[in-house]
Hints:
CATH topology of the largest domain: Immunoglobulin-like
Number of helices: 1
Largest sheet: 10 strands, mixed
Distance between the termini: 35 Å
Order of helices and strands: EEEEEEEEEEEEEEEEEEHE
Helix content: under 10%
Strand order of the largest sheet: 5-8-7-6-9-4-3-12-15-14
Oligomer: single chain
CATH class of the largest domain: Mainly Beta
Shape: globular
Number of strands: 19
Amino acid sequence: CSSHLPPQSDGGRATLPGSVEPLSYSLALALRLEEHAFDGKLTIQLVVTVEEIRSITLHAKDLAITDAHFEGVGPATSITLDDGQSTCTFTFGTTLPRGKGVLSISYTGELNNQMCGFYRSTYINVKGEEKLMASTQFESIDARRCFPCWDEPRRKATFTCSLRVPSHMVALSNMPESMVHDHGDGSKTVSFMPTPRMSTYLLAFVVGEFDHVSKISKNGVVIRVFCPPGKPHLGRFALECAVAALDAYDDTFQIRYPLPKSDMVAIPEFAAGAMENW
C-alpha cells in the first residue's frame, strides 16, 4: 500500500505518504530574539487513515526536536531526522489507532538570516539605533523551518497560533488577536483567532516595533499598514489603495473578503519583494 511507503521524491522535494493527514495545528512560539532563536510547542489534530502504522513523518528543517507524544500511545521511541529530504520521522512503541488522534511536539528553531522560514532582519529606529525584528517567508516550502508540518499546498488545515514576544513589540499573524497576556517579566503572549483551512505556506508571523495607519472598508474589514517607527505617513498611500481595491473587488465579484482584517507590513529585508498570506 502506498500509504506505508517512505517519503517520495517529487522533483527533488519529498512528498509525505497519505497514511496520516492533518486537521488542525495549535502552535505556540516563544521568541528569543537576541539569541536568534525560538522555542516551539505544537499540537496537531490529525487523522490516521490506515491500519498497522507505528510512525509519522513530517517535514522539518533546521529544527531541534526535543520531545514528541501521541495521545493514548505515549512518547516517541525514536525521532529520526533526514536532512536530505527535510523530514522528521516519529516512531512509537505500538501501532497508532486508526482515526482521529493528537500529536504533540516540543522543539527549538533558529531565527536565521537567510530571508526564508522564520527569520530575523535589522532596521534603524528613530534614534538611529540598529534593532532586530522577525518575520516569515514560507512560500514555497519553508514553513518546515518554523514548525514540523505537512509542508505541501494540498495538505490544508486550520492554525491557532500564539507568539511570546518582548512586551514593547507588535506581534502579527493572519488573524486578529484573541487575547494578550502580560507575563510581568518584559514579555507578553499574543494569541490569535483560528485561521480558515489553508496551506502551510500562507501562514505568517511578524514581530517588531511598528507604527501603523488604518481604515475600515465599507464591508467592515479592518485594513492596516505597518511601517517602521516614526514613519506611519509612509503607509497612507498604500492604505488608500488597499481600501479602494478591496471595496472594488467586493462590488465587482459580489463575494466579500472572508477575513476580518487585512494587514500590510513593510519589511526591511525581504527577498521575495512581496508576499500574499491569504
